[in-house]
C-alpha cells in the first residue's frame, strides 16, 4: 500500500485547477443506463471510484470507454442484459448501490448487493428500499442481495426522506423517471450532485418538477435520449484546497475551474477565520492570515456546512489561536482522524459527535494512518504545516477521491513524495 512522505513547513503559493466532481459524476454515470442511446460525459476525474464504477457498468453489459487523459467517459447502455451488481464490486464503493435504481428503473429488475459499512460506521440504505416500495417496486432480500422488481408502469405516490439522504434521492430518481405515473419525494436532498442528476435526466426527456428544491415530483416518461454533458467541478476538493490555503501564514493559492455557487456559506465561514477569500467567476483566491481565528462549525445537509469538509476544518482549527468545536450532525462517528492528528501534536478530543480543539498547537511530523477518504486528506493538511517529516500510510483512500493530489500540491510548494508499495 502506497504511502506519502511529507516534509512540513513549506508555504503553498500558486495555482491549482479543480477537477471534476466524484460525487456528481457517479449519479450521472448510473443515470446513463436509463438512456436509449450512448452518453458522453466530460470533466470526469481520474479517480479509483470512477474506474471501479465503470467496471460495475461493464459487468451488466454496458460498453464504457474512459478517455482518462481527456477526462471523458463514453457509455453505450444499449446492450445491457445482466441485471446484477455483485458484492465484490459493491463492497468496494457504496455508490454502486445506485445500480439498483438504474437497473430496475430501466429494465424492471435488479439484483444488487447490499453495500457494506465503511470506516466510520454503518451507512444504512433503508430509505432507498422503503422509497422504492412506496412507488410500487417489489423489494426482497436474498443472502445479502436486494432484488427489485417493477411493472412497466407503477403507481408512484409519495415518500418522505427522514433524514434527507443524497443516495436515497439519487436512487429514487433513477428508479422512477421511466416507470412511476407520479411520484413525489419530500425532504429530498438538494446537494448540487442531485441537482446535476435532475438536470441530466430532464435534458434527456425526464419529467421532473421542483429541481433544486426539497420536493421533487417525477412523472413517467417513456424513453430518455443519449447525448453529451459536462460534469460539475468538485466542491469538496475545492473546499479542501481553500482550507489548505488558510492553514499556514504566507499561503496564497489561486484555485481555477471553481463553481463557488456550490459552496453555500462556506466562503463566509472561512473569512471569519481571518482568511482572505476572493471570488471572481470561476477563480477563487485564498490568502492565509498571520493569526487564524477559531471558528466552530456544525455540519448539515446542503446548503449547510458539508460533512465531507469537517475533518479538513478540524485539521485547520489545530492552527487557530483559541478553542473551537466541530460537530457532525450527519454522521455522528466520522472522527477517525482525531487520534491521528493527536499523534502529530494536536490538542483535541471527542465528546459524542463533537470534537473539541485547543489551538494553536505546533505540530510535529509522525507516522499517521489514513482510514477514510476525507480523514486521510485532513492528515495531509496537518502534515504540511508540521515541523519535520510525516509519513501518511494507506493513501489509496486519497486516490479514491482526489485527482493528482500530490502533483497539485507539489506544484504550489508542498514537499510530498509517494512511496509505492513493493
Ligand atoms: C453521499 O453519501 C456522499 N457520497 C458522501 O460523500 C457524503 O458524505 C454524504 O452523501 C452526505 O453528504 C456520494 O455522493 C457518493 P446520505 P450517501 O445517504 O448518499 C442516513 C465522500 O467522502 N441514511 O446522504 O451515502 C445516513 O446514515 C462521501 O465523498 C439513512 O438513515 O449519504 C446519514 O446519516 C462519504 N438511511 C444520512 O442519512 C438511508 O437509507 C446522510 O446519508 C440512507 C441514509
Mean pLDDT: 96
Radius of gyration equals 22 Å
- Ligands and ions found: ligand EPZ
What's the CATH superfamily of the largest domain, by name? Enolpyruvate transferase domain
Classify the fold: give the CATH topology of the largest domain: UDP-n-acetylglucosamine1-carboxyvinyl-transferase, Chain
Strand content: 25-35%
Shape: elongated
Structural category: alpha/beta
Instruction: Please give the domain count.
Output: 2
Total helical elements: 14
Largest sheet features: 4 strands, mixed
CATH class of the largest domain: Alpha Beta
CATH architecture tag of the largest domain: Alpha-beta prism
Oligomer: single chain
- Uncertain stretches of 5 or more adjacent residues: none
Give the % helix: 25-40%
Instruction: Tally the beta strands.
Output: 24
Structure overview:
This protein folds into 2 domains: 2-11 and 259-276 and 289-420, UDP-n-acetylglucosamine1-carboxyvinyl-transferase, Chain; 22-221, Alpha-beta prism (UDP-n-acetylglucosamine1-carboxyvinyl-transferase, Chain), CATH 3.65.10. The chain has helices at 22-31, 48-60, 87-90, 98-107, 126-135, 166-176, 192-204, 235-246, 266-271, 310-317, 338-343, 373-384, 396-399, 405-410, and strands at residues 3-7, 13-17, 39-42, 63-67, 72-76, 84-85, 109-113, 138-142, 145-149, 154-160, 180-186, 207-209, 215-219, 227-230, 252-256, 276-280, 283-287, 297-298, 322-327, 347-351, 354-359, 367-369, 389-393, 415-419. The strands form 6 sheets. Strands 22-23-1-24 form a 4-stranded mixed beta sheet. A hairpin with a 4-residue loop joins strand 4 (63-67) and strand 5. The radius of gyration is 22 Å and the shape is elongated. The protein is an alpha/beta fold and 422 residues long.
Amino acid at each position: 500500500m502506497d504511502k506519502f512522505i511529507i516534509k512540513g513547513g513549506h508555504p503553498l503559493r500558486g495555482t491549482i485547477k479543480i477537477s471534476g466532481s466524484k460525487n456528481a459524476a457517479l449519479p450521472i454515470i448510473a443515470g446513463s443506463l436509463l438512456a436509449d442511446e450512448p452518453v458522453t460525459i466530460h470533466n470526469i476525474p481520474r479517480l479509483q471510484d470512477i474506474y471501479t464504477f465503470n467496471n460495475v457498468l461493464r459487468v451488466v453489459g454496458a460498453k464504457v470507454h474512459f478517455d482518462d487523459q481527456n477526462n471523458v467517459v463514453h457509455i453505450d447502455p444499449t446492450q445491457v442484459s445482466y441485471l446484477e451488481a455483485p458484492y465484490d464490486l459493491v463492497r468496494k464503493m457504496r455508490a454502486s448501490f445506485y445500480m439498483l435504481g438504474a437497473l430496475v428503473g430501466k429494465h424492471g429488475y435488479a439484483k444488487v448487493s447490499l453495500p457494506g459499512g465503511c470506516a466510520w460506521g454503518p451507512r444504512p440504505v433503508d430509505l432507498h428500499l422503503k422509497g422504492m416500495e412506496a412507488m410500487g417496486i417489489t423489494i426482497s432480500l436474498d443472502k445479502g442481495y436486494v432484488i427489485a422488481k417493477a411493472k412497466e408502469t407503477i403507481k408512484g405516490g409519495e415518500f418522505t426522506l427522514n433524514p434527507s439522504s443524497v443516495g436515497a434521492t439519487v436512487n429514487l430518481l433513477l428508479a422512477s423517471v421511466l416507470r412511476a405515473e407520479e411520484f413525489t419525494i419530500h425532504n429530498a436532498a438538494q446537494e448540487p450532485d442531485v441537482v446535476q442528476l435532475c438536470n441530466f435526466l430532464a435534458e434527456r426527456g425526464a419529467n421532473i418538477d421542483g429541481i433544486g428544491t426539497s420536493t421533487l415530483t417525477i412523472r413517467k416518461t417513456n424513453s430518455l435520449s443519449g447525448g453529451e454533458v459536462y460534469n460539475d467541478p468538485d466542491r469538496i476538493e475545492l473546499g479542501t484546497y481553500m482550507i489548505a490555503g488558510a492553514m499556514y501564514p504566507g499561503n496564497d493559492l489561486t484555485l481555477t475551474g471553481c463553481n463557488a455557487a456550490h459552496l453555500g456559506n462556506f466562503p463566509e465561514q472561512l473569512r471569519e477565520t481571518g482568511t482572505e477569500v476572493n471570488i471572481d467567476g470561476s477563480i477563487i483566491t485564498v490568502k492565509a492570515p498571520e493569526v487564524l481565528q477559531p471558528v466552530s462549525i456544525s455540519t448539515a445537509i446542503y446548503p449547510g456546512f458539508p460533512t465531507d469538509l469537517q475533518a479538513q476544518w478540524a485539521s485547520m482549527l489545530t492552527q487557530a489561536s483559541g478553542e473551537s468545536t466541530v460537530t457532525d450532525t450527519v454522521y455522528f462517528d466520522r472522527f477517525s482522524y482525531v487520534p491521528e492528528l493527536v499523534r502529530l501534536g494536536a490538542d483535541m478530543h471527542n465528546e459524542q459527535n463533537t470534537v473539541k480543539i485547543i489551538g494553536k498547537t505546533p505540530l510535529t511530523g509522525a507516522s499517521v494512518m489514513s482510514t477514510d477518504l476525507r480523514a486521510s486528506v485532513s492528515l495531509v493538511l496537518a502534515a504540511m504545516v508540521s515541523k519535520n517529516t510525516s509519513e501518511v500510510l494507506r493513501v489509496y483512500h486519497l486516490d479514491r477521491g482526489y485527482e493528482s493530489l500530490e502533483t497539485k500540491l507539489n506544484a504550489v510548494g508542498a514537499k510530498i513524495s509517494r512511496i509505492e508499495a513493493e
